[in-house]
Design a protein that fits this description.
The longest helix is centred in the middle third of the chain and has 14 residues. Helix content is 30%, strand content 25%. The chain starts with 5 loop residues before the first strand and ends with a helix. By secondary structure, the protein is α/β, with parallel strands linked by helices.
Length: 238
Amino acid sequence: MTSAPRIVAIVPAAGIGRRVGGARPKQYLPLGAKTVIEHTLGTLLRVAAIDDIVVALAAQDRYWPSLELATNPAIKTVIGGAQRSQSVFNSMQMIKRDSTTADWQRSWLLVHDVARPCVAVADINRLIETVTAGGCGGILASAATDTVKQLDDSGAISQTIDRDRLWLAQTPQLFPAELLLQSLTGALAAGIAVTDESSAMEWAGHRPQVVAGASHNIKITHAADLALAEFYLSKGTA
């Protein structure tokens, strides 16, 4: 009998988020009655299929210890890196080190942006159910709805891109643990700019699935995104 998949969530949270502004990293900015990171981790904790959560923090993070979540036994922490890819890599190394061989072999790693607090539990569950049924993994994404223009070197429009095949990558992104570790290790060694886990898998020759996710799964990047995220959360979208 094939062992049931073990799902370990990785949340890179070592960044500063300068574009949002403020005196603290964006994951610790208030979003309603909680901080951004509390909303994000709270949603992951409600996903029954997730066995463990690893949060990658900055070495000098002084905000995390003040949160009630810091003492949650379901959440482990690791020191992250200057880049998201390094934070994910460090998390994978810790998970593999602390796992038995059997547990590692059946593990799937679900990587989620700390700055996406509006992701829906139903979307995460659908991603897990769809992707772990077979294949090399997959991501949540939303179909492009705007007309997409390609520019030339001068900044003028060179062509209009057919949007029917264009999707906007979101997170979570879910992949078999060893396959993702091999792909990310190889991509980083080759000097590839790894903007998400799927890009490392694609570089290694794999073809991840796309699972449709809700458009309200926004990433907080600018100050205005906080107000939009608060609106979505007030509507119970997660």
